[in-house]
Hints:
The complex is a heterodimer of chains A (291) and B (701). Chain A is an alpha/beta fold. Helices cover 40% and strands 21% of the residues of chain A. In chain A, helix 5 links the parallel strand 7 and strand 8.
Amino acid sequence: MSLRRFSLLLLLALAAGAVQAAADPLTMGVFPRRNSAETARQFAPMAAYLGERLGRKVTLATSKNFEAFWEAVREKRYDIVHYNQYHYIRSAQSYQVIAHIEEFGKSTICGAIYVRKDSGITDLAQLRGRTVMFGGGEEAMISYIANRYLLERAGLRNGDFKALFAVNPPNAILALDHRQSDAAGAGDSVLELPEVKAAMNTDEVAVLAVSPPLLQLPVAVRRDMPAALRESIQSLLVNIGNDEAGRQVLKAASMTGMGKAEDRDYDPHRKLAAAVFGAESFPGRGVRGTP
Amino acid sequence: MRLGLGAKFTLTVLIFLAATTAANTFYDLEASARFHEQQLVERGRALGRLIALVSPEAILGFDFLLLNDYTREVSTQPDVVYGAIVSPEGELLSSHIDETEPFVKKHMPKGPRTALDLLRLQAARDELINLRFPISHDGKILGEFLVGLSREALHEEFRRQLAVKLLALAAVVLFLSVAIHTVFRFRVLQPVQRLIAASQDVGRGLHALVEVKSSDELGLLTRAFNAMAEGVKKEQDKLHRQANFDTLTGLPNRLMAFDRINLEINRARRSGQRFAVFFIDLDNFKGVNDSLGHVAGDQLLAAIGLRIQAALREGDTVARLGGDEFLVLASDVASEVQVEKISERLLQAVAEPQDINGRKVLAQCSIGIALFPDNGDDVETLVANADNAMYQAKTNHRGSFTFFTNEMNTRLRKRVQLEQDLRAAIELGQLKLTFQPIVDTSARRHRGAEVLLRWNHPERGAISPTEFIPIAEADGQIVGIGDWVIEQACRCWSKWSQGGVHPGFLAINISRIQFRRRFAARLAELMSSYGVPPEALELEITESVLLDDHHEIAEELDRLRATGVKLSLDDFGTGYSSLSYLKRFRFDVLKIDRSFVAGLPDNEDDVLLVKAILAMAKGLDLAMVAEGVETEDQLGFVASQGCDFAQGYLFGRPMTDDAYLDYLRGLQVRSDPPRMPYARRPHATSLAAKEPMVRSKEDTE
């Protein structure tokens, strides 16, 4: 075989590989803080938006539960992934944050501990020996970790109160409303959620303590993603609110906007997790969480 | 409102039909409602079991949003009003109410509310189907699922089906109404109406049979009706015959005779013709009955009826009015001469001898004739005038005919007026008793008096007994008057006697009409009441009394004699003077009529008659009283011939009771009280006489 002929074959092979690479769909995973159907309803427009803009199909992958989702994260089956801050700081070796979301016009969120106004509780110390309902699980960055941080600072360590976990933050506040606990831990915007407003009288609960603001939920891509592609995706997400199609995508996903994010933006989260969990900062007891 | 048979029948059937169908429909709807309610409950149970099955995970995970999804989803199911999940402590974990449910709109106030608020309502407990399902996990009770089901849709469906079925029922009932009524009308009502029409025809006297068109009950009814109609016709014919014909003679009776006279009046008015009414009465028919028996009398009447009919023209009518009275209607008579000829034929026809049970019986009649329009223009007047004329004929000359005259009419009216006046005479005190003395001829001593009746009419003055007694006997008033006379006589005698005056005996005239079975008993009763001894009374009886049934007369005379009173045969010689009467009946006294005394002592015939009577009386041992003695010569003659007593103007005129009392006192009869003067003889046999007499006396004696 001549050099020219070998070169030609190589070019054809590279071209075929390039075409093949361009044709492979990207997989976008979304953590299952809502059920699969609701997750698909919210994020299918975003996948379509990205696929259309990238010229490459983006497939939305939902998970039936957090265990399955985390397994897919560990196996890096998602090219693009949207999950909570604690997920990110645990998977930062495999994924690189490129954007964060905004809810209710805010790019940050605080942890908040709620009590019923008729409970007579006005100080965190009064929760000693009482029941605290947290939204999500122990991996929930805002509902659990940030609020545990507040309790730690108030001198209440694990065991000084009884910790219960609702399936998500809205249910934690609803459990408080239904007198299933003396306090509830969730994000500071949980009372703004329509499903919460519809299910209870939010005037009957009060915020007992609020954590420092933390950056909202991240969107990350695989660290081995080509830089051009990563940058294209980042650019599309950060600027998604600039056109009507993008705003419809945000609305469908119950977001008010997206911003650019870097890994160090999540260092505060790492600090709070370390304060709560100590040596076991990143427990491997299962992955359940929500902001 | 009057309902016809068809309407009643149709209404009754429809009421039963509607009631049973409605009951059935209602039962079906009730069963359907129960079935659908059961289905609803089953659906609620299925929902409840499903929610109870899926809820534990959400409860354990405090997934209230999911529980809300469950209750909301349940509440959106049809007929579900609310869904709720409560904790074992009763804490409400999730609740959703279907705001669109009518029950919620009706009973729940606006604003925040839960299923527990709803359940506190009594209406929810009453109107909703409330089901509870326990929620458990690994044997631990986690809570309870509550679901409320509304019956509103069931009720709405019930009402809808009820309305549909009622409409259908109404349509069926309407259809059946028309159908039943139509069938009933043609199959039942029309035959019944034919029967009704035929019944009405029968009621009007028409003989109408109804065609039998079927063999069912209506056919049988029609046959029965026809049989009844024929029976009715036979009975009607029978009744018509009984009502219009005389059963004895087969001749028309009074009713039909009057009808025919009425028809004849109308016909004669149109034609301007005359016709005659003959009133026929047999003379002495009673004698036939008494002597030959009533059967023979009936045979004679039937035979005479046939003979009268045979003597008439075809088209003339003969009717039997009753008893021995016949009536003949002769149409189209041209003159009185023709009527006289008809009358003569009738007299001849009646007078022909008739063979009754082998004996020749002779009869005769008296005929009164009234002509139309001369003697009346209506049936009553014509018959009454003919009757009056017949009476006149019978009075004047039996066995003759007499035309009615206006004088008869006047006499009749006068007689009728007198009858009416006489009825009131006793009450008005117009009747009075007078007393005429009777003396013995030897010493002219007073022995008693004959009681005489006087009527002082307020307009006509004194009316003679010969005028009013026959009237009183004819209309029966004589019974009351006679009774009054006896009672007054007894009262007077009792009063005088109690006043110390001995009045002697009182001779009282008795009418043959009074002479009946009860008379003796009544006399005894009055005598007892007033304390009058029997020797104080003498009853004067004329021969006419003896004309009646001899056996009964003999019995009554025996009863009177048993009372002790004396019996006197009055007016002897003026009537039949039957010696057989004197033989058969016992009398105490014989009174010689004044007509024989008046000619004494110069008239040779009277002398011979009086001598013969006195001789006969002596032979029969009867006391004798000469009536109408007015002169000394008359007294001397009768005394010389052995007459015991005398009565007349020579001794005194009839006096009122007061005058008679004064007369008695004047005679001072107390010093020589009268004794019963009449000698008693074994018995006297009377002679037969036929002519009835009127029991009346003039005060001219």
